[in-house]
Structures are given as C-alpha cells and as structure tokens.
Structure to design on (510 residues):
C-alpha cells in the first residue's frame, strides 16, 4: 500500500467510523451471533496474493461488525463505560502514524515530555495533592499505564520489594525467602478482580477483608487483620483501597485506612478506576478526603475522560520506590540524559519495556474538549443516572440495592434472586440494552451504568421502558404458567413477585 492508497483507505475508514458512531443507536447493543460464527466465515490461511482495501473494508461491515458488542452505544449499561471521542480516535491514529516506542526519553523526547505535561494537567484537574505532580519539589509524579490492572500490579510489586528490603534490614537473621514467605496484602471483598489477580501474579496472598453492610472497607477492619497477621509473624505490605467499587461504586474510607497504614508502615494504594473522574467536581470534593496520605493511585481515563482504551493514569507519591524496584539495565538502553528528574525514563515505572504514545490522544482530547467539557461529561452521566434512579423509585415493583453513585444505579425487581436472573435473561435475549448482575451477601441485583460519549435523557427512557415492560412480561408469563400447571413451584414464584409488588404498593400508600 502506498501513500496514495493509504489516504483513500484512511479517509474511507474515518467515514466508516463516523457513520458507525453517528448511527450507533440503530444497532442492537448485543450482537446476534453464536460462538464460532467468525471462524466459519473466514479462510483458515492468510491470502497468498494481496487483496484490495475496498474488499477488506467491505468485509469489516459484512463479518466483523455483526460480531461487535457496541460499547459506545448509549444502550450499553454493563460494567463501567469504556469511553471514546472523536479527538481521542484521531490521537490514536496519529500515534500509530508516528509508530514510535517511547520507553526512554531519547526514544522520542516528545512522548516522555508530553506524558509529564498531561499527567500534571490531569492531577491539577482532579485536584490531587501537589506531591503527585512531576513539577513538585519531591519525588512524585504520574505515568500512563495500559490498564488499572497494570497500575495495581506495579503498586503491589513495588510495595513488595520495598517491604522485603526494609524487613531484611531490621531482621538480618531472616533469609530473603523466609521474608518473602511471610508477606501479606489487603483489600476489600468488594474490590475488582484485578486486585486478587495482582496478588496471584506477585505471589503474595491478598486478604479480601469484609466490607461493611454499606460495602465500605474501614480502618478498624484493616487494623484487626493487620494485628492478627503481625501476631502470627506475617509481614503486612500493602492495602489496596477502592474509590468506586465495581459492584456498587462504594467508596472505602481512605482517612481511617490511611491512619492504620501509616501506623504499620503499610503502602496504601487507591484504585479509583471509575470514580476518579469525579474528583474534578467541586460537588464531589468529599471523595478526595484522605488522598493526601496515600502512596499511589490509579484512574482510568478510558472510563470517564473520553479517552479511548487503553489509558490508565497512575500517580506515585515517591516514584523512586517503583524505579528502584524495577530498574533493570542494559548497555543498549542507556542514554546521556538518563537520571534527570524532569525527564523520567518511564520504562522503569511499568511492566513492559516498550510503551505506546498514549499521551498524544490525552493531549488532543483535553485540548479540544477543555476542562469544562470533561467536567460536563461527568456531570451529564450523573444527571442521567439520577433520572434512572427516579424511575426505579417510582415503580413499586423495583427496589434500589445501594445508593446511586455517580453514573451507576444498583437495583432489582422485588422477589428474590430468581426474578432478577430471569429478568436479566429476557433483556439479554432481546439484546436491546446490556446490563450485568452483581451480588452482595447472597443478594443479586442489576447494575445500570450510564455509558456512551453522547448519552441522552431519551436513552434512559428507552432503557427503562425495556426493563419495566420485560418485568411485566415475566410476571404475566409466570402467572399464566402457574394457572396452567397449578404447579406449586410456579405458583410460589408467581406469588413471590405478586406479593412483593403488593407489599411495595402497600408501603408506598402508607
Ligand atoms: N478497578 C475497578 C474499580 C474497576 O471497575 C475495573 C474495571 O471495571 C478495574 C479495576 C479493571 O480495570 P482495567 O480493565 O483497566 O484493568
């Protein structure tokens, strides 16, 4: 392919993407394909002769698009949003055009320095403590990782290495393997699966401590666990707290957790993968309480900042702790400006050697939307979630399971786990909206998350009509079945739903 053809293909691809995103509501959010659909459609060998890009683009429409789950659709309400925006897509394309791998400053000075600039912009935008800025006096700073999982793993590994060094200094009688065998880390039972996985990868047990009834992990629970471990000769290393848990967007109590971590010299990392975007809002200032006492923090720009995956910001209070843990050198990696604090070699701050020019899409997105545009985006998702919450409250057949938090509403039809499962199954079969379930203390519920770069009030109404009409359909079906079969189980199920509906109406009328 020469430059002329690239221009044609590239322009056609931009048109394709613009058409796709502009008309995204026309497609059902879930694809209508069975496992193996694509394997049956494509040849088993690559083509021997080159094919024209027009054929390839045609096939993207014909075979790829039908197998896409439309994450950018405003009818997507599962997981958390995976954002994108036109400027970010262009940034991604330009970064691919440069085709660089910026693992050290010399490998593309702009890649490193732009990352330093945008990470400081972002830290200020989110009102993070000054010590996280590259431009501050101290050893802190921010870096872009691929995902929250990588950021958490980096924190866990760095904390582990720091703990090994310091414990061996104070206990020279112990061998390194003895020390490593005693390490232990903490998080809440509400934390994301990536935290447990980081423990597996770091070969260090992570105790998932019970969050309270309100899904929040507090200092007293951590203190009790640490005291038990210390008494048993174990070495507490790190606590990974969450601001915005995946299940219910609960906020761990950073202030009490940090007090315990300081007392026991335990690293405190905060996973704010989703909720971090709200730090920027004055009305959410409470979320930032205690962040001045944490050692590291991560926030996914690809969730709330209209930057496309992958782009996960991580800040360190003392970046030297990570650099010292991960610094493995070779003569071919050296350059004469190494070690200058203003120009970090970010390869020491991450797991891979190579690194993408992610700062470019961040810079382009921030400049073209402005801080005000980003804040408005977060506020819009919050407002739309409030709209959905009101619809749940008004329908007595449903109940909220946790307080609405940012763009997430956790709710369920009254009547137990079985009704929740059946309702979700009906919705999934119809493919018009996409939600997932979560569970706490044996109670299953549905998570409704506002997603998409351009979600509107009418999309919320669309989703609600779909949900409540499917519950009506389910109730009618169950009542018909119960009448037909006279089956006790069917009747029980039917009456459960009916009963909860009646109770709810009664409660409402009181
Ligand atoms: N942490 C939280 C709170 C999350 O909700 C998620 C994913 O939704 C993650 C971590 C994992 O994010 P990533 O896919 O960027 O690793």
């Amino acid at each position: 392919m020469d430059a002329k053809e690239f221009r044609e293909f590239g322009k056609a691809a931009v048109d394709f993407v613009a058409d796709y995103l502009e008309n995204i509501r026309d497609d059902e959010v879930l694809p209508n394909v069975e496992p193996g659909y694509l394997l049956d459609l494509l040849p088993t060998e690559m083509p021997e002769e080159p094919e024209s890009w027009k054929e390839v683009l045609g096939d993207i429409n014909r075979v790829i698009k039908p197998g896409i789950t439309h994450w950018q659709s405003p009818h997507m309400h599962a997981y958390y949003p995976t954002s994108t925006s036109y400027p970010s897509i262009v940034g991604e394309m330009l970064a691919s055009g440069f085709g660089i791998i910026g693992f050290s400053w010399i490998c593309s000075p702009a890649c490193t320095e732009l990352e330093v600039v945008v990470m400081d912009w972002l830290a200020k935008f989110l009102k993070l403590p000054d010590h996280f800025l590259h431009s501050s006096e101290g050893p802190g700073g921010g870096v872009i990782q691929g995902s929250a999982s990588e950021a958490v793993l980096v924190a866990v590994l760095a904390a582990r290495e720091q703990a090994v060094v310091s414990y061996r200094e104070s206990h020279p009688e112990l061998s390194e393997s003895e020390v490593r065998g005693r390490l232990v880390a903490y998080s809440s039972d509400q934390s994301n699966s990536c935290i447990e996985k980081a423990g597996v990868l770091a070969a260090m047990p992570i105790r998932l401590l019970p969050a309270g009834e309100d899904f929040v992990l507090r200092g007293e629970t951590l203190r009790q666990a640490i005291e038990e471990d210390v008494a048993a000769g174990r070495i507490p290393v790190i606590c990974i707290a969450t601001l915005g848990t995946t299940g219910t967007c609960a906020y761990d109590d950073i202030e009490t957790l940090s007090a315990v971590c300081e007392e026991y010299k335990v690293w405190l990392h905060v996973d704010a993968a989703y909720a971090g975007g709200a730090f920027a809002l004055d009305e959410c200032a409470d979320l930032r309480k205690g962040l001045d006492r944490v050692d590291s923090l991560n926030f996914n720009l690809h969730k709330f900042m209209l930057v496309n995956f992958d782009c996960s910001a991580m800040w360190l209070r003392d970046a030297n702790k990570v650099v010292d843990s991960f610094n493995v050198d070779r003569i071919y990696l050296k350059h004469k400006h190494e070690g200058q604090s203003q120009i970090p070699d970010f390869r020491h701050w991450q797991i891979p050697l190579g690194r993408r020019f992610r700062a470019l899409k961040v810079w382009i997105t921030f400049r073209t939307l402005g801080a005000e545009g980003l804040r408005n985006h977060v506020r819009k998702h919050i407002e739309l979630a409030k709209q959905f919450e009101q619809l749940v409250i008004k329908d007595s057949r449903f109940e909220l399971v946790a307080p609405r938090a940012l763009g997430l509403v956790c709710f369920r039809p009254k009547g137990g786990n079985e009704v929740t499962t059946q309702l979700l199954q009906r919705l999934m079969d119809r493919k018009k909206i996409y939600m997932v379930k979560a569970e706490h203390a044996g109670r299953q519920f549905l998570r409704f998350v506002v997603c998409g770069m351009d979600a509107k009030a009418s999309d919320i109404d669309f989703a609600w009509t779909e949900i409540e009409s499917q519950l009506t359909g389910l109730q009618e079906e169950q009542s018909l079945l119960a009448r037909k079969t006279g089956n006790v189980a069917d009747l029980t199920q039917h009456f459960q739903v009916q009963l909860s509906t009646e109770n709810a109406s009664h409660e409402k009328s009181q």
The radius of gyration is 25 Å.
